[in-house]
Amino acid sequence: MSESPLILYGGSFDPVHNGHLRIASYAYRRLKGDVLFLPAKSPRWKSASASSKDRFMMLQLAVASQEHPFFVSEMELEREGEVTYSIDTVKAIKEEEKERPLILLIGADQALRFHEWKEAKLLSRLAKIVVVPRPEQELATSNIENFKMEVLPYYGSGSVSSTKIREGKCLDLPEEVLIYMEAHELYFWGKVRQYYSNSRYEHSLSVAHLARQIAEYNRLDESLQLACYRAGVLHDIGKEMTQEKSVSLMKEIAPSYISLPSYAYHQYIGEYLAKKEFQEDDERVLSAIATHCTGSKGMGCVAKILYSADKIDPGRGWDSRIYIKECLKDYEKGFRKILAANREYLGKLEEEENALSKACYEEYLTKGDYNE
Ligand SMILES: [Fe+2]
Ligand SMILES: [Fe+2]
Predict the structure, then answer these.
(1) Which of 165, 174, 194, 337 is the S-S candidate for 65 at Cβ 3.0 to 4.6 Å?
(2) Residue 150: phi, psi to the nearest 5?
(3) Distance from the CA of 111 to the center of ligand 2, in angstroms?
(4) Would you kindly state where each structural domain of the chain is located, as residue ranges?
(5) What would the pLDDT profile of 181-237 be if each residue is shown by its tens digit?
(6) CA of 310 to the centre of ligand 2 (A)
(7) How far is the CA of 239 from the centre of ligand 1 (A)?
(8) pTM score above 0.85
């Protein structure tokens, strides 16, 4: 019996996401071979890219989260010179795996230009070329014929892309990879980090994960889960501004709210920065940030979840477990309970109620069943 093939899967993996993993899983089942991920060197001109080490580490975490026999090789990352060629990689692997059939997975866009690759003919003899199609990409029929390529009948990788992930606009990736990007301040998270102190960055991420979890447990769709996560990450970006600066900015962007207590300013400044600096265009995210401190009437589900998650963040140092449990079960009920507790707490401090919070209490606490 011949040995099972080794499937080589190259790419920049900047970062790896579930689309890559779904393709690898499908290839593993269909072609019946182990999959070896080969992250490529990043071109020097691509400054938005993560380092080779980070991309490699994220791949390792992603692979470890899978049940299939997936492996990661540093071979291309360690190669000398600016440009690496697939033929050199395949030759080197063939040296080590003489008896083993090799399969090289390539994208539909790469298949179109395959005839221009270095030693393309030899490459297609050393490894079977298998093309991963994309719905919007034409197939390179002449190359498929000339180089005896096989087209994988698979279109299920989804709409995820590394670009969307780098912008923090898609979370279709292993949790371990998300945690890595947050901890190492890569991409979107690197930019967010500039607006926060250490402890506030930690608080915002903790709120983001809790808000996303509440959305998930309440069976809200993926776009709402993402909105909850982003609202959490960005909600306090307006908080680390000097009093003087925030007053002058408030005069410009939200003059009608200047009479609010100054601790509430950061919700409007946050909304403004999210739009201006992070190109946030999801109204659900923006209005959640703009009401997370005071609450208001007419709050949407992202706003209610953010308001709740911010108050019950486990990192705040009080025992909020019953509220977390309540929100995970029913975010509407949980929100009302948190609102009621907040009113009582602020009442004890004898703090003046502002008009926004008052309207919020009136809408959600007078006709509700939050006491049940
Ligand atoms: Fe806040
Ligand atoms: Fe907060």
Answers:
(1) 174
(2) -115, 140
(3) 49
(4) 6-151, 195-365
(5) 999 999 999 999 999 999 999 999 999 999 999 999 999 999 999 999 999 999 999
(6) 5
(7) 7
(8) yes
